[in-house]
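Extended Data, record Flagellar motor switch protein FliM
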Amino acid sequence: MADVLSQNEIDALLSALSTGEMSADELKKEEEEKKVKVYDFKRALRFSKDQIRSLTRIHENFARILTTYFSAQLRTYVQISVASADQIPYEEFIRSIPKMTILNVFEVPPLDGRIIMEVNPNIAYSMMDRVMGGKGSSHNNVENLTEIESKIMSNLFEKAFENIREAWSNVADIDPLLSELEVNPQFLQMVSPNETVVVISLNTTIGETSGMINICIPHVVLEPVIPNLSVSYWMETKRSEVNPQEVESLKERVKKASVPIVAELGKSDISIEEFLAVGIGDVIQLNTRIDDPLTVRIGEVPKFTAQPGKSNKKVAVQILDSLKGGNDDDE
């Protein structure tokens, strides 16, 4: 039985036959070739686009927290933002970073594996210069990193990375711990070269110095919390955050809150000179009549009308009606 051509194939065939450029067999062969997709088994995609987007959102929050932290620590202009989030083989990540750089290796119990925070040397030395009282100038001298410099950087980046606990709070409750500081990526083999890692790159500006901070997260670290990276999990988490008991407790506390109530007899406009001349026994004429209802204010908002009187030999007002209008109609 002859193959049945699609409408697109028929139209293309008629066009090709009319010009003598192509035969039907050549056309079908070309259509089949277009359906083939190249797949690199060395670059296995183990995370969905949805999960990568969730990781991007998490580290956008982390970038904002780091901006605040470093601004306070360094007392200079700091701007950190997510540039990209990609899944690549570990070997490719090692090749993409400088041969000599600042590599902070963190353990994140209870999760297995370790996370790398790679800081560009220009950024690292600029931070260290600010910590030591300098202007934030950068001089790349990673190969001859002294023990004092290593200690200063370790303390700075260890405290900075602790903020990831807050950014990850919706995914996992982790306890970051700096395990080592390395400068040569070739000496750092955390996982196999073909292991898939997620690399979040952060654009970083410290004063007039700019560079990149890369966070490398191996698949083994994220594997237990992959279900928590889905959109459905985030939506369920947000819904479950509303605790009915907390809502009722909040209502009770609001009911017991104290608010000022003022019964306004009237108003009058006088000049500063007249005000300074007011003395005991003087009479100030108000803009209301004796039989007009009073305005009762809750805070600064007029809420009720009332009439004056006495209750148990004390001055009191009796509520006549409620006032609505403007932004005070939602009682």
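Summary. Residues 301 and 326 are 10 Å apart (CA to CA).
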